[in-house]
From TrEMBL:
<protein>
    <recommendedName>
        <fullName>Antitoxin</fullName>
    </recommendedName>
</protein>
<dbReference type="InterPro" id="IPR006442">
    <property type="entry name" value="Antitoxin_Phd/YefM"/>
</dbReference>
<dbReference type="Pfam" id="PF02604">
    <property type="entry name" value="PhdYeFM_antitox"/>
</dbReference>
<comment type="function">
    <text>Antitoxin component of a type II toxin-antitoxin (TA) system.</text>
</comment>
<dbReference type="InterPro" id="IPR051405">
    <property type="entry name" value="phD/YefM_antitoxin"/>
</dbReference>
<dbReference type="InterPro" id="IPR036165">
    <property type="entry name" value="YefM-like_sf"/>
</dbReference>
<comment type="similarity">
    <text>Belongs to the phD/YefM antitoxin family.</text>
</comment>
């Protein structure tokens, strides 16, 4: 992980973008008032987003399983489900 100030990034943006994509480096761009930003590769960004979605999905499954354990479920027949789908 690299931390680089804004002025340096401006003069060497390509170099730091290459580090992010070619070397899988995380580049923190430091700015005034701690309004920092991060440069990462699209591949790394997609991995982070996929992990976040998976965590949300697993949390939803956990909540659903807890509802089942508490008996907060409703049984429906196939005919009832088909009727609901056609509404």
């Amino acid at each position: 992980m690299l931390a680089v100030n804004y002025s340096t990034i401006r003069s060497k943006l390509k170099d730091y973008c290459d580090k992010a994509t070619d070397e899988n480096e995380t580049v923190i761009v430091t700015r005034k008032d701690e309004k920092n930003v991060v440069i990462i590769s699209l591949e790394k960004y997609n991995e982070i987003m996929r992990a976040a979605r998976n965590a949300e999905y697993l949390d939803m499954i956990d909540r659903s399983m807890e509802q089942v354990r508490q008996g907060k479920v409703a049984a429906k027949s196939m005919a009832e489900l088909e009727e609901m789908a056609n509404e």
